Amino acid sequence: MDSKLKILNAAKSVGYTVLTIGLAIFLYGFFVSDYSIITGIGIGTVMGAIFIFLIGVFFVATEEMNEKTDKGIKVY
Q1: To which H or E segment does residue 4 belong?
Q2: What pTM value is reported for the model?
Q3: Please, are residues 26 and 43 in contact by the beta-carbon 8 Å criterion?
Q4: Nearest to 39, CA basis, from 51, 47, 49, 27
Q5: 9 in the Ramachandran plot: left (φ > 0), alpha (ψ -120 to 50) or beta?
Q6: DSSP letters along 32-50, please?
Q7: Sign of the Cα pseudo-torsion (61, 62, 67, 72, in order)
Q8: Which one of 37, 49, 59, 61 counts the least CB within 10 Å of its CB?
């Protein structure tokens, strides 16, 4: 359980950090800058943060399912 919690906390903290950076870039590009490409970079960064978090949750769910399944051939 400890390893799953570490993976989930790592994905959460990295996701929040990238999300914050992406929101800052998006808001800068949308309100301050005259270049529209910066807005696109901000949107891409936010989407990347969501992707990182979902992959972390998927890894935790896969590990949980892998532990709960019976492995091998049972010999009676």
Answers
A1: helix 2-27
A2: 0.83
A3: yes
A4: 27
A5: alpha
A6: I-S-THHHHHHHHHHHHHH
A7: positive
A8: 37
